[in-house]
Amino acid sequence: MIRHCMEERPFEACGLLSGRNGCAETIWRMENIEKSPVAFSMDSRHIQKALQKMALKGEALVGIYHSHPTAPPLPSPEDIAYAYYPEAAYLIVSLASKQPNIGCYRIVGSRALPLRVELRC
Ligand SMILES: [Zn+2]
């Protein structure tokens, strides 16, 4: 996920994570159709296709990630406004400092609640 975000610089990268029981097992690199350093969006047809492939693997959407090439890992007002999957964890990979920084949130309505990420799967 971090590698994908670094490869897409200076643009924001985005993608999906699928797995079971909230545990991410598969990464789905998606195209940022906005090709922007400060915004991202995914083609809804690409999302549908990925969701179908996840189902075939017996997995479900557990996370949605995107990068902030120059900003901290905090959700922007747009990130919150366009968060359509309340059951998914929203991960933001910040590349603003030397070490990548990951923020993880559950976004419900207009609120972003921080989530804990464990690297153990
Ligand atoms: Zn963002």
UniProtKB/TrEMBL annotation:
The keyword tRNA processing does not apply. The keyword Metal-binding applies. Residues 1-111 form the MPN domain. GO terms for cellular component: proteasome complex. GO terms for molecular function: metalloexopeptidase activity; zinc ion binding. It comes from the Bacteria. InterPro entries: JAB_dom_prok, JAMM/MPN+_dom, MPN, VirAsm_ModProt. GO terms for biological process: proteolysis. Gene3D superfamilies: Cytidine Deaminase, domain 2. SMART domains: JAB_MPN (SM00232). Keywords: Hydrolase, Metal-binding, Metalloprotease, Protease, Proteasome, Zinc. This is Proteasome lid subunit RPN8/RPN11, contains Jab1/MPN metalloenzyme (JAMM) motif. It comes from Brevibacillus centrosporus. Pfam families: Prok-JAB (PF14464). SUPFAM superfamilies: JAB1/MPN domain (SSF102712).
